[in-house]
Amino acid sequence: MAFLSGRLYGTAQSMDLILETSQSRYDTLNRYYDGAQHLKQLGLAIPPELKRFTVIVNWPRVVADSRVDRLDMKGFRVGDDERLAEAAWQLWQRFGMVEDQSSYLDFELFGRSFKVVSKDDDGGVEIRSVSPEDIITLRSPVTGDVYIAYQRIRDEYDMTVRRIVWTRKRTIYMDAAWRVENEVANDIGIVPVVPAFRNWRTREPAYMPWPRLQGVSCISDVIDLTDSCARDLTNAQLAQETHAVPQRGVLGATKGDFVDENGTQLPAWEAYFGRVWALHNANAKTFEFSSAQMTNFTAMVDMYARLCAGSSGLPPNYFGLAADDAASADAIRSREAKLVKSIERDQRALGAQAKETARIAIAMMMGVETAKRFDQCEALWHDPGTPTVAQRADAVTKLYSVQDPAGRPLLPREMAWEELGWSPDKIKRATSLLRREEEESLAAYLKPEVPDAENDGGSGDATSGGDAGAASAKPQQ
């Protein structure tokens, strides 16, 4: 087996090193999303006896999932070429890109996502999503185009078992030891790996630690607030056991005086939290303090929740803050204005990725010249706001009912359907059903054609539409 050439081998190894170095960052984001961050990340020196009082509020998952839930693609538009748009959308559906929310979660959680286009064994193409933990690209500082991509393939034990390198000319498959197993020529001259970055910046700040990866996680602003709330809730849990109930005290007793019903000495914490005390010293005196209020802890939790709502753009009720008013549809949309605008910005980034992915797939299937039509392509998305169907339908109906001087509707029918949020498949089905209804309605007004005069019961003359000669030659009965 051969190995990579020296320069390409060095580049691929440096990209592998970037992935290894970035793993700690991805692990931290994964732990916060799963609510599994370590206690040491909370800045608390908690003894082992108090670990059962720790509470982790999983606001990072609330933020990430709430954004992913609003990312729903519904089709492509390629200028006026409906055939090409339908072919691209069928590809997207065939490989599960419509139902694949994991790529959107990667985009929101890690700030980046990747899609790979490759040829299958039958000569067709396949599209797949790859975790940012295992793939990376290098872009030209002049044009911004991807000129090399590298992926490591890991097994269930996180051990690298294969490696792939893409260039503009070829795709190279290697084993874990960097030995080349297979090479495939790249006929289209484009690296078939398409990244998408959330909140893309022209250049990452120099103060950021190496490696400076593009893309901003949607939970980065709520991590510190989540830790602060976790500290507050942990303190509240401890205070609930020690101060929320009347505090007890003992005078004239030693540690050895605390025993159970069998006379065995109790451990310190078990004696403290025990419901029943048995004192060996009959001269010991007990007394009780009044309980403390817990409102200071709840006030801090409310404050952290409101700060999270402000930084993430999510409405306060997403963080457990109940609204006192019965919000109308306009009020709901007003509260979600920042969130919706941010989601629309994410849709543009993910839409550009979907457009380029479809372009590469079409280029592999139909040729580069056909793929050039995707310069006019755009990805279509469902409305990221909370649906208010009645208001949208009312507005579209008014636009459709307005007519120009020639009596035509101001808004074409299919465009009205698009404004209602219908997908291209639904619009196509509606068009087919309307055409069938119109044909059936037209057929009901047409009189069936009479094949001959005999069936019509006429005399067979010219005025009745029959053949006069045939009628006269017919013998009388």
N- to C-terminal separation?
Answer: 99 Å
Note the main sheet.
5 strands, antiparallel
Question: Unreliable stretches, pLDDT < 50, 5 or more residues?
Answer: 456-477
Task: Give the overall pLDDT as a whole number.
Answer: 82
**Pattern of helices and strands:** HHEHHEEEEEEEEHEEHEEHHHHEHHHHH
Q: Can you tell me the overall shape?
A: flat
**Structure annotation, total helices:** 15
Describe the 3D structure.
The chain is 42% helix and 16% strand. With 477 residues, the chain is of the alpha+beta class. Helix 3 crosses helix 9 (337-366) and helix 5 runs antiparallel to helix 7. The radius of gyration is 35 Å and the shape is flat. The protein starts with 5 loop residues before the first helix and ends with a helix.
Question: What are the key terms here?
Answer:
3-stranded antiparallel sheet, disordered C terminus, 477 residues, flat, 5-stranded antiparallel sheet, 14 strands
Write the layout of secondary structure elements.
Layout: H1 6-34, H2 59-68, E1 73-78, H3 82-94, H4 102-110, E2 112-119, E3 125-130, E4 135-139, E5 146-154, E6 160-167, E7 170-175, E8 180-185, E9 193-197, H5 223-242, E10 248-251, E11 258-259, H6 268-273, E12 278-279, E13 285-288, H7 295-312, H8 329-335, H9 337-366, H10 368-371, E14 377-381, H11 389-401, H12 413-419, H13 424-445, H14 453-456, H15 468-473
Antiparallel strand pairs: 1-14, 2-3, 2-9, 4-5, 5-6, 6-7, 7-8, 10-13, 11-12
Question: How would you summarize this macromolecular structure in one to three sentences?
Answer:
The chain has helices spanning 6-34, 59-68, 82-94, 102-110, 223-242, 268-273, 295-312, 329-335, 337-366, 368-371, 389-401, 413-419, 424-445, 453-456, 468-473; strands at 73-78, 112-119, 125-130, 135-139, 146-154, 160-167, 170-175, 180-185, 193-197, 248-251, 258-259, 278-279, 285-288, 377-381.
